[in-house]
Amino acid sequence: MNGRARTATRAVPAGTLGVVSEPPQSPLVLVSNRGPVTFDVDGGIQRGTGGLVTALTGLATHRRTTWIASAMGRGDADRSREAGGKAFNVDSPAGGSFDVRLVVSDDVAYERFYSIISNPMLWFIQHYLWDQSNAPDIRSHEVEAYEFGYKLVNEDLADAVVEEIEGERDPVVMVHDYHLYLLPRMVRERRPDAFLHHFVHIPWSQSDSWRVLPTKIRDEIYRGILANDIIGFHTRSYRRNFLQCCEDLLDLEVDHKQGVVRIDDREVWVRAYPLPIDANATRELSRRARVREFEDELLRRRREHLILRVDRADLSKNVLRGFSAFDLFLEQHPEFVERVTFMAQLMPSRTDVPEYSEYLEKIEALVAVVNHRHGTPDWMPIQLKLRDDVEEAMAAYRHYDVHIVNAMFDGMNLVAKEGPIVNERDGVSILSENTGAHEELGQDALSVNPFDVQALANAIHRALTMGADERRHRIEGLREVITHRGPGDWIDDQLADVRRKAAGATADDELTVVESDG
Description:
Elements: E1 9-10, E2 28-32, E3 37-39, E4 45-47, H1 51-62, E5 65-70, H2 74-82, E6 88-91, E7 97-103, H3 107-126, H4 140-164, E8 172-176, H5 183-190, E9 195-199, H6 215-225, E10 230-233, H7 236-250, E11 253-255, E12 260-263, E13 266-272, H8 279-286, H9 289-301, E14 305-312, H10 319-332, E15 340-347, H11 354-374, E16 382-386, H12 390-399, E17 402-405, H13 415-422, E18 428-432, H14 438-441, E19 446-448, H15 453-465, H16 468-482, H17 487-502, E20 513-514
Parallel strand pairs: 2-5, 2-8, 5-7, 8-9, 9-10, 10-13, 14-15, 14-17, 15-16, 17-18, 18-19
Antiparallel strand pairs: 1-20, 3-4, 6-7, 11-12, 12-13
């Protein structure tokens, strides 16, 4: 075996071979904060935003599904009222037909749910973003936001779930992400026969990070998510953290080897399901005519080398240290002045949260400093583009020499998988060891500690001076891993576990994943 060989041998429970047979299907109910589409006030329809929507779209087309989500604005609320608050069928502009139920919550409650508790409170905890000497301060404002915001919106969506599965035998409900940690327990109390599965799309942080929450709130959140039958994460690391939290914070019985938490005479399976991309769809997108237009412009202005990052302007993405490392690289390697451009396409994110608007201001200020320090009359070291344009990003993916993903902590970082699939220059990936994608891609990327600015500057130099054979070997390794599994596999793995556990399998019968590093 070569050093890249990876195997996943599955010990299938007795009596099963290959794919587990599909029983007669009851409807699958998906629940998330954002839905697959959103409506304008004039009735126009747009694809829902965010990586979670992309991930779930394949699941919703995989089998008969009702997708329950919060109404995102007046257009969504109007469309929900037209449907009498019930599910209705809709064709997404991005493809796929869905039964969607949009739940309208009180505006003040939703603002508290989203802008005080979900973001920033839970997001900051799970990405280690709090500067704990200064924040957070938990006062009545935050407690009320939890009681009369986070809890109320979870109740609104739980009510819709219970109504949707009324009369159904053995319904399956798949809950998604950090917005809805309380919902499973609310559903479990009213429908103990429902099978509940919860996938968390962001990191699960270590025990001490959760101690910023008041004990009552923390216990309710944990007991809420532990009302599920299966809980899924992107990586084994996040799975380990969750299991350790259950032991440390709730003193529960935990089987780390089998990935099981025992609570209230129930066995909760905790699993890792790394999220893949649709490689064929990504390649197809990169061939669009509009991508070619951006590509022509990029090549016309291109210098000898191109460094690329594509991200949201989120604190967790570590954009400032990325630019600081490039600044240091140019200082230490002046021979690259006027030969390299760092192109950064950043989508402004959560600008209504003060920490995010301040962060964006810091990004723009640092770019100005670096460009002033190293730039020349006809060369600007950093090209900053504050917009979300997937076709423009695809054009840059095709031609980067170095792709930087240096997030401090992150869920999966699908951009780390998208770039190598379409790149035509054997581009080198520089990847933070704290990204979800690192568990799969770290062997063939240049791994960096995201807090070590000098190490990132060194990695940039190594990537730009790397020999052609090594570059080719590394990107071939990345593509091998990225194309090994597709979205259908991600979906099938979860549904197979749902069927096994629903059929009475225990952790001892459950699949054992054996990994080989060759």
